Amino acid sequence: MDHYLDIRLEPDPEFPAPTLMGALVSKLHRALVELGANDIGISLPEHERYPPLGATLRLHGSVSRLQALMEIQWLKGMRDHVTLDGIKPVPADVTHRVVRRRQYKTNPERLRRRRMRRHNESYEEAARRIPDAVERQVTTPYVVVRSRSSGQAFALFIEHGDCQDAPVTGVFSTYGLSKEATVPWF
């Protein structure tokens, strides 16, 4: 993770930034699947200053892998909506953090249906065991993406872990997220 590439969303009067970010992450997902890449990570460097997501998607990896990604023209259809800064080396003396997918089980209706299937219970019994009070508000930033394998749209919650001094190596998903591997944070 010695290089990075910033992809910045341009303001658009027709599409809000979260919609464009979702489309961008969906396109990146398809490209990472096509490349079979598990060595490219992402971060949202502006998510704390400009909630919920900011306007910049930062890709992290080696210069050769980032070049290979950009050679497959995965940004087709998004070029009018983004600006690329080019591949650059990561600055010296940066911190690192895990950027991972966070999944929540917050919808009581979905939890009840699941319980009904798994325990062969009636709706009334499941509702008694899972009250409406289990629902909670989630503040983690997310993008709405479409899965390449299932075609289903879903909310992909993206959580930035605590900053740490040393990098941790590991693999990344086809969304550029990891449970343990870190990306440079600056």
TrEMBL record:
Q: Which Pfam families match?
A: Cas_Csy4 (PF09618)
What NCBIfam families does the record point to?
A: cas_Csy4 (TIGR02563)
Name of the protein: Type I-F CRISPR-associated endoribonuclease Cas6/Csy4
Which source organism does the UniProt entry give?
Halorhodospira neutriphila
Q: What's the name of its gene?
A: cas6f
